[in-house]
Amino acid sequence: MKNLVYIQSGGPTSVINSSLYGAIKEAKKHPDLIGHIYGSTHGIEGLIDDNLIDLGLEDDEQIELLLQTPGSILGTTRKKLPKDIHSAEYAKIIENIKKHNIGYVLINGGNDSMDTCNKIAKLVKELAIEDVKVIGVPKTIDNDLACTDHSLGFPSAAKFVMNAVNAFSVDAGCFKKGKVHVVEIMGRDAGWLTASVDLLPEATRPHLIYLPEMTFDLEHFLADVKKVYDEKGYALVAISEGIKFERDMTNVRVDGFGHAQLGGAASELCRIIENRLDLPTRAVEFSIVQRAFPGYVSLTDRKEAIMTGKKAVQAALKGKTGKMIVFKRVSQNPYKIKYQLAPLSKVANAVSHVTQEMMVDNTRMSDKFREYLRPLVDGEVKLTYKNGIAPVTVLKRIKVK
Amino acid sequence: MKNLVYIQSGGPTSVINSSLYGAIKEAKKHPDLIGHIYGSTHGIEGLIDDNLIDLGLEDDEQIELLLQTPGSILGTTRKKLPKDIHSAEYAKIIENIKKHNIGYVLINGGNDSMDTCNKIAKLVKELAIEDVKVIGVPKTIDNDLACTDHSLGFPSAAKFVMNAVNAFSVDAGCFKKGKVHVVEIMGRDAGWLTASVDLLPEATRPHLIYLPEMTFDLEHFLADVKKVYDEKGYALVAISEGIKFERDMTNVRVDGFGHAQLGGAASELCRIIENRLDLPTRAVEFSIVQRAFPGYVSLTDRKEAIMTGKKAVQAALKGKTGKMIVFKRVSQNPYKIKYQLAPLSKVANAVSHVTQEMMVDNTRMSDKFREYLRPLVDGEVKLTYKNGIAPVTVLKRIKVK
Questions:
Q1: Which of A125, A152, A157 is nearest to A136 (CA)?
Q2: Within this chain, domains B2-141+148-153+294-350 and B155-291 share the same CATH topology
Q3: Which of A68, A77, A174, A200 to mutate: most B Cβ within 10 Å?
């Protein structure tokens, strides 16, 4: 009988621990096949440094709270493994896999983490350690993983962004002469999350929307902002953090080494608007909150996150390896997906962008996009509260010797 | 029979429209005493410029949605009326009160707005317009209104801040080597809102808490941040926007006029931490979201907001004027308040601060504070959703001729 190790990797999401929850629940159903359920602390680092904790020793109550706990409860990492799978760190991974009699390696992450996952799967195959199965669990609020209809965590982040901008919008528009509000939303390469604001009703939808997939022309941008402001007395602009524009280098702060200190995209654009249009501005970044907000988790997202954790265990038990769980949308109305497997080698080197046919212009997305997103953000979760606060999991973290 | 005009003033809150809802509901119960229910657009400006809308012509469905609509649905203002109540703007106010046969003026606002409210009450009295009653409805997320146990909107903002920091905290702590996260929370003069994070359990409570009521020593601050970081591998610091510290003026951006461009307190402190301690940082501002977030409205706050709107109408109908509704806590366990009236003249010129006996040090508040806050943030509201979004009120805004 083999043990299972679960790894959380990369930036967390609001439902990352729901997948862990699903995996634990499923693994416990197979006491004849799976011995211990281990968690690797700080992603792959735990498997390199022999830092595993025994999840079987945690209280049931804390396992249940995983469903409303954002952040990576096991700890995460942004570490990239070396390209050469024969280098020292891989040897340590194999050593610890053997030491702890591990037969199932589940890695929950985004693009970079699937690359790690792929490398380990390759190495295990090359070394002919037949009884070690490696499965990827998709996760990224950026929604840019390839081979899948969508990625876990994105729907909940989108639900937060939509509802936060919806509320924000009423407040932003309630002064006679307001400001130009530039809201910066996560997404370096893909604009899925920013595009989600398009689902808002006209009264609260941002006037202008900019994704990394669109050409961003600063002069057009300034002209559009001015036009909206002149007409409405305020403006609400949603931008992806990854939009590309030529920075205005006048008045840029320079540090002791002579390096220009650039701000985030929103604050830079606000500075340019103030300099060029002489309008009052407010830059807003939702920061980590957008990926770590139990209050607006999408029910669809949570259910799928749990199910994906389960499916990953099932796939490993069936002897599958070197694969990631992916979603195929088989019906739009009613919304229905099928869980399938895609080769990690195919996932690891691709990025999924918002397509041209999903965008209309810098004020609207297309019906195609709206149809795509609507079922994903559907349904609300009910949190448990104690003294007005939604409690999160606290683990005992008992180290495996 | 006289008409009623309702005014929203100053910075909005998550429950400001719940008080309007309560006032409309109560006013409609007295068709024999109250004719039309008007809303003044953009605070007192609507009464100066004759911009009133008829709230009696709005759809019931939209009135119900007021309960989950943040922002000032009528529009608001930060306009301060001149000191001299014999100046032109007051004359216009009186003119429009007469023109629209107004007998009840309800002003929902914070300290500055209660000053406006007080001036109008004084003027009406001086002019001996006996049949015009002026009543204040308290509201400020800063919780710094005097004469009252607390102010409407503060409990919901506290509930958001607590839950957002709770979630944020798990995410912030999940990397092996993390950052110094400085979270800036609203509150220029009073630290009530920042102090609310003290209610979090130890696992997620910020390591350091700074209110405007505390002496802030930059060197001590840096030493404390370093100590926490060395011990934990990351740090979470909560600060009020109004804390006072000597800005580090090296590397400060200077605009075209030679004026130093200072950032918010959090980003300034992060810059100092990077310069002095050479640690990675992340500045976070919850910005408008903390005062405009229907998802974490406190049930206690919403109930009291509705009831206060009702009580204001009742007080005006009873002939009271020049007063604000205040809350007196008559029982702690179970929590119970009495609605009373306080003279506007007393409210208008005072500020309520966090007291010395509510603070322990820069890591903890006292039991007294926790007992005070706990019942205020209690209870959750259930929102209605459509396509994953909690809809907000959209008014027809039919202007009164």
A1: A152
A2: yes
A3: A174
d(CA B332, CA A226): 53
Q: Quick one: fold of B2-141+148-153+294-350?
A: Rossmann fold (3.40.50)
Catalytic residues of A: 142
B257 pLDDT exceeds 70? no
At residue B110, φ and ψ (nearest 5 deg) are -105, -150
Locate B87 and state its tokens: 């100046």
pLDDT higher than threshold 70 for residue B385: yes
Among chain B residues, CA nearest to A77: B175
CATH architecture group of domain A155-286: 3-Layer(aba) Sandwich (3.40)
User: What is the distance between the alpha carbons of residues B19 and B306, in angstroms, rounded to a whole number?
Assistant: 5
Share of chain B above pLDDT 70, in %: 96
Q: Tokens 């404390």 belong to which residue? A: B224
Q: Note the pTM of the prediction, 2 decimals.
A: 0.94
- The residues, any chain, with a CB within 8 Å of residue A274's CB and separated by 6 or more, are A280, A281
> Inter-chain contact A387–B394, Cβ cutoff 8 Å?
no
ipTM, two decimals, is: 0.93
Interface mutation target, options A49, A175, A301, chain B, most CBs of B under 10 Å: A175
The catalytic residue among B142, B144, B198, B224 is B142
Q: What is the pLDDT of residues B138-150, one digit of tens each?
A: 999 999 999 999 9
d(CA B236, CA B284): 11
- Between CA A240 and CA B310 the distance in angstroms is 44
B155-291: CATH number = 3.40.50.460
Rounded alpha-carbon distances, angstroms, from residue A275 to A179, A180, A271, A280, B7: 14, 13, 6, 10, 35
- Domain regions of chain A by residue span: 2-141+148-153+294-350, 155-286
Which residue in A162, A203, A250 is closest to B388 by CB distance? Answer: A162
- Using CA atoms, how far apart are residues B143 and B111, in angstroms rounded to an integer? 10
CB atoms within 10 A of CB A91: 13
Instruction: Write out pLDDT tens, residues B358-377.
Output: 999 999 999 999 999 999 99
Contact B174, A71 (CB under 8 A): yes
Determine the Cα–Cα distance for residues B88 and B161; give it in Å rounded to an integer: 42
Residues of A in contact with B380 (CB under 8 A): 383, 385
Q: How many CB pairs under 8 A join A and B?
A: 195
Chain B residue with minimum CA distance to A257: B251
Q: Determine, for residues A394 and B168 on separate chains, whether the beta-carbon distance falls below 8 Å.
A: no
